[in-house]
Amino acid sequence: MMALTSSSLISLALAFFALGAVAPLFRRDFRVSLPPAVIGSLLTLFVGAYGVYHEIEGEILSGLLQTEVGIGPLNGFFIAFLGLVGLFVSLYLLHYDMEPRHMTFSLAYNGTLASSLLFLATDNLEKLTLSYELMAVFTLALFLSTVPKRGRVTARNYIVLTQIFGIIPLLIATSLAYSAVGSLHGLTFEALRENLDKLPVGVWLLYVLYLFPALVRSGVFPFHTWVPRVYRRLPSPLVPIFIALEGNGVYLSLRVFFETLPVSQVLGYTLAFLGTVSVFATLYSFKEIRLKTKFAYHSVMDVGVSYFALGSALILGGEFGTVALVGAILHTLYQTLYKSAIFFGLGAIEHYGEEPNICSLRKLLRGHVIALLISLSAFSMAGVPPLAAFVSKWLIYEASFGTANVYLWAMGLTVAFLGLFPLASILQVRRINSLLCKREVERDEIPLYIRAVTGVVAFFGFLVAVFPLMVFPWLQHIVVELTGLEMGGLSEAFFTDLNAGFAVSILFLSTYAGWRLGRMPTDRASELLLIFYNMGDILRFTTDFFLKEVKKAYLRYLLPVVKVVPKHELPLIKDYDDALDYPVRHLDEAMFMPLIRLFERLARWGGERNLDMNALISGFAIALALLIALLGVVS
């Protein structure tokens, strides 16, 4: 008990990750770094599970890196979650065939796990910012150590996104928090909450500054672009690490927007809207034939569902807000489990040097028990009753449709409608596989570790979904920490109101519609979806048209007023660059002479007639408005 209260187990886990990072110095093989990572992940899992029920407080590390840790139900849940994923990935890689840059990979892989553990465990905002930056750097190194040189453009875009929209807003937010608290050592979440009135700016700026890093880390619109590009090039067994880090973005949102800053409905609508837009990624997945990219878009969709639920929880509050909050956390957990099993299955194809595609999938699906388990994971992603996504979406829809809020209904129905495409996409893959991939494939034996890890992850995801009571006590503790509300039993959560039947009906209807769409011929399905696929083109063409008309009006009518352009040269100006060569027209008396003469005539005309005062004031107001407009255009 003494060890836990002094937080020595967290330090021990970080020490094993550090040992794994330098292990290739003694033997040039990345696999020697995996046993320490396994032990570190086990310790992480244990510390997180213990922290859900018993708070862990103390200080770890020393010197400049010394930091306070405080593990409660919320971050304990995500720490256990990280340890579970790290354990499975480390075991899987022991027998996975790849040739990374051994030293770089070991340092980056163990560094990613260690920095993520520090990010979740720390109670200090300064160390939170530091660990966020370490996560970005180590994940970049992990990507570069395992992909060929042609992936450097993707790596550059990823690090630019995480720096500009991730770490820079977080640094500004930390600086503002320090100005309010006045101490780096005491710069905790609780201290910030108690000193919000001392901020030099409005609290709304903190909402904005913390929102950007959370969205970037989770891969939510408009910062979702790195997800399909990184997942497509990264070895499949490493993708679950990035999916777990998406959960860190959800954790940051929960910790800041629910526990630290005042609850904001405006922020709730923002999160719900951004989550709803992210769900549209499933349409891109439907037309994608590269399996890793297909499931990457599904990942964007699932995180979008979680953020829609988080926004709904902020908007609703009370009992329905609690239900939506539980649905968001459950969906984050579920999507990591079933996506991990799917990418582990694709890794079995990569193990033999093949690119995972619709035809190479045949190697995996013939004659293996693993095929059944991966199919369970795929149908869990599709929300087929009674599997994972069905359970979490039940809670989310029940909360969203349990109110008279028109905006939530509109966004909820959009999410529910788009929820039919994952099942249609899976059935489409299966149908195309049977139609086009007729060649027989050899039944290669998948290594024991790969089969075991994939099977355990898929089976565990199935058990947690069918029997949510396994994690429900943890969720009750989290709800109390975030909202202060005591949550009832499992039946009370799933049957809060009569609209639970409506939510379940929507899910069954979505499953049926997805099954029908997935069985349609591809050309027929494409006709039905043409409006969605062409929506981006329609918007782009419309925008181009208006921009061209505005440009034409500026060059033809406004440019001669703003700049000194001879009339005979005006037809020669075709673009904005051509107009730069002409000097700007300055204000002079001659420009205003017509206006001055107009006022003189109005004055003489008014002197000859006895005008009504209301008419006189109205005329003066119109003339003044014209003058202001003219001055604005000329200046």
UniProtKB/TrEMBL annotation:
GO terms for molecular function: oxidoreductase activity. The chain crosses the membrane at residues 6-26, 33-53, 73-94, 128-147, 159-181, 201-223, 235-254, 266-286, 336-353, 365-386, 406-427, 448-474, 494-515, 611-634. It comes from Thermococcus profundus. It is a multi-pass membrane protein. One of its GO terms (cellular component) is plasma membrane. It holds the Pfam family Proton_antipo_M. Residues 124-418 form the NADH:quinone oxidoreductase/Mrp antiporter transmembrane domain. Its main location: membrane. This is Sodium:proton antiporter. Keywords: Cell membrane, Membrane, Oxidoreductase, Transmembrane, Transmembrane helix. It is found in: Cell membrane. The keyword Cell membrane applies. InterPro entries: ComplexI-like_HydComp, ND/Mrp_TM.
